[in-house]
Amino acid sequence: MMSKAKANKAQLAELFRSFIEPEFVITDDETLKPYECDGLAMYRELPLIVVLPETVEQVQRVMRICHEHEVPVVARGAGTGLSAGAMPHKEGVVLSLAKFNRVLDIDPLRRTARLQPGVRNLAISEQAAPYGLYYGPDPSSQIACTIGGNVAENAGGVHCLKYGLTVNNLLSAEVITAEGERVTLGSDGLDSCGMDLLALLTGSEGLLGVVTEVTVKLLPIPEVARVIMAGFDSIEKAGDAVGGVINHGIIPGGLEMMDSQAIIAADDFCGAGYPREAKALLLCEVDGTEEEVSEHIAEAEALFRELGATSIRTSKNEQERALLWKGRKSAFPAVGRISPDYYCMDGTIPRRHLAKVLLEMEKMSEEFGLRIANVFHAGDGNLHPLILFDANVPGEFERTEAFGSKILELCVAVGGCITGEHGVGVEKIRQMAVQFNDQELQQFHDVKAAFDPLGILNPGKGVPSLKFCQEYRSLEHKQHRHEQAGAHHG
Amino acid sequence: MADQIDLLQEQVQHARNNNRKLNIVGGGTKAFMGRTADPDADTLSLGEHTGIVEYHPVELVLTVRAGTSLAEIEAVLAEQGQCLHFEPPHFGEASTIGGTLACNLSGPSRPWAGSVRDQVLGVRLLNGKGEHSRFGGQVMKNVAGYDVSRLQAGAMGTLGVITEISMKVMPKPAATLTLVQDMPMEEAVGYMNRRAGEPKPVSGACWVEGKVYLKLSGARSAVEATAEQWQGSIMEDGEQFWRQLQDMRHAFFADMDTPLWRFSVGSAATLPVMEGQWMMDWAGAQRWYRGEAELSDLEPIARASGGQVSLFRGGDRAGEVMHSQPEALKIIQRRVKQSFDPDGLFNPGRLYSWL
Fold it and tell me: Is A195 in contact with B154 (Cβ distance < 8 A)?
């Protein structure tokens, strides 16, 4: 049901221009163009209007106007998202928070930082460094991505096994609701009375509110960090080594794995000296006090040898540590050099199924006729298979998408989930029907309605409609039957 | 070890069909928390819905039925050298994991190890329509759908019956050691926070009865080296001290007659010293105050320190016991409650009179 008060583009723009500098109310197609997608460029849409408010009061007024006229609102930070979560709505407003980029306060004694949502993730640690503190969650895009977006996606990164995700490192968030109310969720304390709406907001992909301020916890910078690079001649052995180190009681600050395709690409790219003949490579970083790190590094090295590592190298200084990580951190662009395009997936699995899932993906790779490279957070089971393809070859992207869907469904089948840190967005909305039943999806819709009764915040993202899910499931079922029939006849 | 989901589901349906309310009870050790339970409501017991559903030590993930006792869980984990890192308080042998999550209870290690809420990865929940659903999962990272699992932490059963919980577990620290020294309360706040800001293996920091206690845990070499560098004498029965603090069996908590208030505030906050007794835990982020007071008088003090206050034990439990909520958040919480429990079956009024 549309409101009688529905305004057209020109009327809306005029309303916004009454309190936002006219040049920051964008309506022409050429200037709107850079906003048409986020980091997942396959999904594009031109918005009706982009606004760049400067104050919280302006954000509040934008929300009130949009609520009154039932206009969709998509909040946007740096646009580094990888699931089209910030893709605009064609009849909606993109609310850019780019101007909210100030660190408001760092309290070194209390170990907290109060931030505007547009502050870049890495900038938090840079500004906290003089106090011997840093911010734990470190998504790979941390040089560019913003804390507001991190909250929206519950961003993770290499450190998460030990230091937790965004949700574990937040104290409070100031939020403008869909109805334009300004509320604070959480407090300066470690917990608050009532329902934990802060937990609900984190990772909600901009569907429950617009974050205008965040207070995060800071951690003391570890005295020392050293990384062990261990090569293995099989994926199974590397997988066992991941379990081995954790079972031994060591929680690494980072535990990452690369497969042979990624090892060679990354080594070509940055000359880290990776063992090019290895089938799998582990990077295991241990951080803590000098004593703790020496003790754990010696134990982990011995363990990796025992579990069949074919090569081991441990960083002796910061320079070497940075070099060993450089390959991992530049693995995506490195893979970009060996393929015209790549598509990054983001499924999570229980670690014990690592080898099985990787081998199954290898089989699928042959079936689909598309190569894959694997670079991922082995410590927490968050896989990032990169499917290599060429967008100029007709039909290849469609095949890539189909392959990606199969990978996510495989993750669910072994007890995992369809997204570990990138979010559902538009990209994985079909697979939500695989992970959740209608009852569960209905509950999500009901939660959404509690915050946003008119459904104006980021509509069409995150949670699919039940009708869509039923169609998707029945299609899958039909295809499955068809394939089975084919197999019988073949 | 028993799965009683069919029975629980039946009881919820019965309550729904007969316009009855339900008080959710696990081991019954937290009856003193929240507002007084509705005397007209029927009891929905999870005491028999127990057992470990899945545990793979190498995954660091445990899945249990909500009525399982903390004691049983900790015994099973200990066999594998693992533990619940958030040190849940046991208010008796019968304390369950479900109640611990519903009340969002965590022990002295909370600022470093995270809370029960932080360790939850997934739950199964029976809602007010009698539907049994699964939210979250058994993996460390999962951002599909809203975080309904963590929403249960502190909701005190007002959103549904938590029937199963998957949570992160951690290796037991190799060594633990406690440093103690005399210090007045005013100095202790700054001292605990400065220590917490150093990259050392701190896992507990509290002040009680004129003494500051710091717990160190981790690799033996690291713990011993830190103890040598820092002031304070090594406490003989340190583990026992922290255990008493965790389970609220420390002498500070012995007086059950005077109301016990809990301030959850910025760790370095300076609170006015009111008449009564004080204890500070969580490096200052959790402060216990025992004394006669009104919630409405304490709320401004908590707010000025960036936090909130609640009446934890004793006092008037027919009135509000939790820090009041602004109108906009009341509206959202009522709607969220409605979305899970449209007929208001579960724990009516236990968290707030208006919920």
Answer: yes
